[in-house]
Amino acid sequence: xxxxxxxxGDLGFYLAQILLDEEHDVIIIxxxxxxxxxxxxELDLVVQKGDATExxxxxxxxxxxxxxxxxxxxxxxxxMVISLLAKELGAENVATRIGKIDxxxxxxxxxxxxxxxxxxxxxxxxxxxxxxxxxxxxxAFISRGQAEIMELEITEKSKxxxxxIKEIEHPSGSAIVALYENDNLIIPDKETEIxxxxxxxxxxxxxxxxxxxxxxx
Amino acid sequence: xxxxxxxxGDLGFYLAQILLDEEHDVIIIxxxxxxxxxxxxELDLVVQKGDATExxxxxxxxxxxxxxxxxxxxxxxxxMVISLLAKELGAENVATRIGKIDxxxxxxxxxxxxxxxxxxxxxxxxxxxxxxxxxxxxxAFISRGQAEIMELEITEKSKxxxxxIKEIEHPSGSAIVALYENDNLIIPDKETEIxxxxxxxxxxxxxxxxxxxxxxx
Amino acid sequence: xxxxxxxxGDLGFYLAQILLDEEHDVIIIxxxxxxxxxxxxELDLVVQKGDATExxxxxxxxxxxxxxxxxxxxxxxxxMVISLLAKELGAENVATRIGKIDxxxxxxxxxxxxxxxxxxxxxxxxxxxxxxxxxxxxxAFISRGQAEIMELEITEKSKxxxxxIKEIEHPSGSAIVALYENDNLIIPDKETEIxxxxxxxxxxxxxxxxxxxxxxx
Amino acid sequence: xxxxxxxxGDLGFYLAQILLDEEHDVIIIxxxxxxxxxxxxELDLVVQKGDATExxxxxxxxxxxxxxxxxxxxxxxxxMVISLLAKELGAENVATRIGKIDxxxxxxxxxxxxxxxxxxxxxxxxxxxxxxxxxxxxxAFISRGQAEIMELEITEKSKxxxxxIKEIEHPSGSAIVALYENDNLIIPDKETEIxxxxxxxxxxxxxxxxxxxxxxx
Amino acid sequence: xxxxxxxxGDLGFYLAQILLDEEHDVIIIxxxxxxxxxxxxELDLVVQKGDATExxxxxxxxxxxxxxxxxxxxxxxxxMVISLLAKELGAENVATRIGKIDxxxxxxxxxxxxxxxxxxxxxxxxxxxxxxxxxxxxxAFISRGQAEIMELEITEKSKxxxxxIKEIEHPSGSAIVALYENDNLIIPDKETEIxxxxxxxxxxxxxxxxxxxxxxx
Amino acid sequence: xxxxxxxxGDLGFYLAQILLDEEHDVIIIxxxxxxxxxxxxELDLVVQKGDATExxxxxxxxxxxxxxxxxxxxxxxxxMVISLLAKELGAENVATRIGKIDxxxxxxxxxxxxxxxxxxxxxxxxxxxxxxxxxxxxxAFISRGQAEIMELEITEKSKxxxxxIKEIEHPSGSAIVALYENDNLIIPDKETEIxxxxxxxxxxxxxxxxxxxxxxx
Amino acid sequence: xxxxxxxxGDLGFYLAQILLDEEHDVIIIxxxxxxxxxxxxELDLVVQKGDATExxxxxxxxxxxxxxxxxxxxxxxxxMVISLLAKELGAENVATRIGKIDxxxxxxxxxxxxxxxxxxxxxxxxxxxxxxxxxxxxxAFISRGQAEIMELEITEKSKxxxxxIKEIEHPSGSAIVALYENDNLIIPDKETEIxxxxxxxxxxxxxxxxxxxxxxx
Amino acid sequence: xxxxxxxxGDLGFYLAQILLDEEHDVIIIxxxxxxxxxxxxELDLVVQKGDATExxxxxxxxxxxxxxxxxxxxxxxxxMVISLLAKELGAENVATRIGKIDxxxxxxxxxxxxxxxxxxxxxxxxxxxxxxxxxxxxxAFISRGQAEIMELEITEKSKxxxxxIKEIEHPSGSAIVALYENDNLIIPDKETEIxxxxxxxxxxxxxxxxxxxxxxx
Lengths: 217, 217, 217, 217, 217, 217, 217, 217
Known about the structure:
The structure is a homooctamer.
Chain A: E1 2-6, H1 10-21, E2 25-30, H2 33-42, E3 46-49, H3 55-60, E4 68-71, H4 76-88, E5 93-97, H5 105-110, E6 115-117, H6 119-132, E7 136-142, E8 147-153, E9 174-181, E10 184-186, E11 199-205, H7 209-216
Keywords (chains A, B, C, D, E, F, G, H): Ion transport, NAD, Potassium, Potassium transport, Transport
Pfam family, one (chains A, B, C, D, E, F, G, H): TrkA_N
GO molecular function, one term (chains A, B, C, D, E, F, G, H): potassium ion transmembrane transporter activity
């Protein structure tokens, strides 16, 4: 794929690194000469110094051929206008970093942004769960935040120790979808028994996640 | 719970907001008077102006009673030292923002950091997947990055259209763990049939995720 | 009318002054406290300190009741996003300052901007004409730049001195639409004679303006 | 013509661009090396780094041969002194940007400034009219602000629909000087009829413009 | 007298101090609030915060009644425009600090500046003489730099030791105008004798000063 | 002579220019590379980038051979320390700019400063006289400020019009030491008559200068 | 004692703290209002905002009664001039921080500085010894750097293990002046035996310190 | 030895200078290009531009082979993290500058810091003693601050003048360990007599130092 990244800060840098590892073609556009130099010295890709709110800059970067443009400058409004401009110029797929979490949904839609990225807001949700529920080993949100997958450790006190999957009662809209036994990922069937020391992955709709978690621990 | 947040930037602000919504007690410490004033004006919590690398600041904030301290200043080293100091002063649980992704693991462990947060690195991985694999509707990483859960849309071209779960061959270490039919979350059993228009959630170990995805689309 | 001005710089200030003189209700929004204070001290209107890219700021300013919003901050992208947000929130009429003259037309349309203002570009065109054509006393552009109205002084050398309007040949798409004689504005008819010392106003389509001017001087 | 522009900001840049398109000789003087480099890279003209308040700088730029000097630095006083110096050194024609609208007229005259440019003040007047009178499609000021030309759309409600020019009563000092029918510019005679959908251009002295406008809509 | 000083830096401050000591009425205008506060705290006079390039500021300061205005801001052009404005508004006497020594004379005259002050250039001339001619005890320039008065010490080696005034030959356009004997100022007559240890004051036209000095030492 | 100037600001620049014109050898030392480059480009002398508070810098500049060092940096204390260091290293003659007029005399003497320069204070005294005594055409201070020489214009109202020098009574410690008639400098004798239109130079001890002036006008 | 500290940075702050603990009277002078406020809030002493290079500031602080003044601003030259001024005004004892280690000795003496403090240079010497000679447990310099006292641990490999003081040969100008046995400080006599595990303190002239150290380890 | 210094400020510079003089191999790491250039120009060692909180920077500098790393950046937290990282990467000996004197001891120990350097705190203690006890000529702290060595001058008023060492009573935990007679260092024995004009070095435990001093003077 051919991907244009606008903004060579930490996020742009890491993204470029990952995409290069997967052998995509990547170009980074940044206004700041120092940032351009730094990236050129560390990554093996094309760096274009320029202002991506200008049509000519995006055209020079090959926006018409790009499979995606990712707007990651430090300013929401600039990212939004770049996204709109990129869409008008033919970019297939536009991902945009937005710092403010309460931007009007309709505004973002109208700008033609395909993927909205909220690094701070995402991190905030993640931290909040992990620090307030220590028995949760890890968690992730899926389906645009509608569902949640939690990893829990089964201790001797767990309500479901020794039970088989079919014997466990849990609210509809949730399920134990996997287990780790000695770090092996196992997809359980009805007869699988839950043992002390296993880690289980539970999928649950977001609004019942809390209830599900309590039914198990 | 009683939670101390150090650093009142965007991330600290959003985290405080979420924790307050869940009725935890939160205190924010920041060195900058303007940030303190801004937060005091917008959130209903205690804001303490001070330097959290000083013992007396953390003690005044009640570190001994705190269930968790979250270090979110803009500087990695400051966050790391605050974390170590907080641990020494008795904080149960310490979560720390680290910008650089290649910090020596042993260093972080030695500092007593329980949860490491990489907002930029996390966002970079997420964006990378979504823009290069447009058929993936959403995705999340779980088990500290060892496994991945993908949401895919079933189109007429999908290799598994019309098949029952039991008929689908997929690599071990992976499973279709849920379906959305008309936005209802369904935990499939062996007889469940995969229809056009459904969205499926697939769990897979990270190293085979790509193979799994291709076996389905 | 009720008009919201975003940005309290020179342009916003002068606009507010004119609108107040015509007895409209005006509110100015600016992020900078010093600018807010300065305006409050000099103009008799409501000044709101805030960030107009946030829905709540515009709502607090009464965007739903506003007849117009004028975005005049120093940054094009911010003006553009404010404009889009204002349109979505119900502003009837949106005028926006854009510094760059080559912004994609479709982008501006998509943002719902009703009136685009280019102070620098407008001034550049105006200066260019006046300094390179000293016989032009003043000029203005009308019909979104498609036509031009020039004021010329009739000297003894003018090709049309002593002629009646009906005797003057000039390219189609142009006309002498008015005269000043001793500062009195006169709308000529076919018999009006052009005398030395008069100033004439000529309307011409932009593309023939130069030809028209030369046919007269 | 040979034209010296002092100040390479947005306004100076656009002006140079227009003048070059019309094949004038242009030189830009700016104190800032970065601005000089940027312009050299984008426009095909001579750029001179220097301080235009110094005689030697203007002489080196060829002030004696220049047909005009345009002072466009960001500071009123600097522009004013450059203008005076340029006049003393023999510049034929001097145009000067002045931000403050209330500079003493006699001061400006004494400095020998031929053309005073107020981009912000001009834009403010323009915006004010367009947003408060939505039926005005465009407007311009002519004769140093003494007269105004408005473009209005004729709707079914217009008071003059179906009337011939000779039947329309309007205050003296005003006239319908042109019409657009399907984008064709027509100079009306007494028998021309005003139809729905046409756009008319009305010339009016500034002090009766409002009255004229109301007599038509 | 009533004197307006614009600019409250070191020079403005010292000037105000001297004028107050001589019981003149003094007002200082400065744009910077901190400078205004500092002066208010240290001198017993009126301090007005404002921009002296604006008519209203000067009028508020009482320019019409002022016997003199002294423009001492740090920027030549600002001083020049203030001077012109002050003259137009009726200031009797205008003194202006100019840093650049090669400003076109006609420009300064046209601005109506009565007294031009070059502190740096004046100091440079003074230092130059004193350090290169150690026998010169002090010197001063008079008549707008056309003449010079030097103080010299008479040593045993002086060519004029023991001579009477009438016996001393010196170029026309010069004269020994005074002597100090034991710090008493004496106006010599023809018979006065020059003794070792006396200090003499010699007046000389600038262009022969060097020759005169050498004829004596 | 060989002269070291420390500090390449306006004052240092003008001083170097004068000294070069008189064919002295001059070196300028400045810490700022940009200033060094600017001076190198405009004056024909040696410029040394360095910190003149360091022994090695002054030695490299040839302090041992220098006839004089002039300390003109923008900071009083730095100038003072450079002066002391220069004296210790053998500089014959040290001239030093001091901004604050109330520095303890003994401190300056102890530092070995030969000539103290107060450009701002000097200018303040000069301006004060000229603006408050408009009949004084020019004036200068001599003998370290103990005496004053004034240039006055003789008008019809002057008390001494038509008188001969011998007839004029004026306080002891003062004398009319020269006249300008049609710009010719004349040293008067007892019979010289004072005519309207002449300009006279009066020397007076500082403390009686005011009295003398009044006895004449 | 009554002690004036000029400069409220880290060093000034710690010094004040120590002096207050020993119940001296301390005043801190600093130019910066923020620093003054911070110190006032944390220490119980008089803080005077002012410029200590001015006579009046030091007099207001009571320089005539002060037993000592310590100049600790961040700039060497300012410290030096304050020191000279303080001495002239009667300060008994003046201590001054100097960053540059190679300031001309005679210059410092001439300024009347009693105690010169080089925190960075002192720290550099200390670090250098400790890191390059790991067997040295601690060390200090005494007699203005002429002598050194080292603390060494006696291991089984030490050349002097089991010897009595009188049996140990070491260069003249050195001596084992004390021992720690189990943290008890013991002054040895000739019969004292050196045992493994003891720590010895050796005094040595600076130039033989290295030789002495090697004769023991 | 091979020593890595992080931070090229004054302290780092002086340390490098001393170590080079003793013929150690030294490398300086600094993030700032200007500082790197300055040091390269003045010292003969390797300068590496880089961020020492990154593993790769320290590895490139040869941390595995280094005998010591000294962290001297201006920020405590950065120094602390570099120290921890260096220890993890195998540095034998780590010395670290810490500005705040009240850092939790356990925190510093946990970071593996071998030598803690407090230049400001050290200087503060030193100044405090010297200015409050003028009879102390010099003093130093040894054994990590547990003991103190003072140099005192023996005057006629001293309580121990004329006494032999064995006759002097002083608290246990203290001893006169050396004398200077005419600048010769003498290790006294019991019969040594204390004469006027000698300087004595007294070693004392810190807590009795004051008492010891008073017993002698």
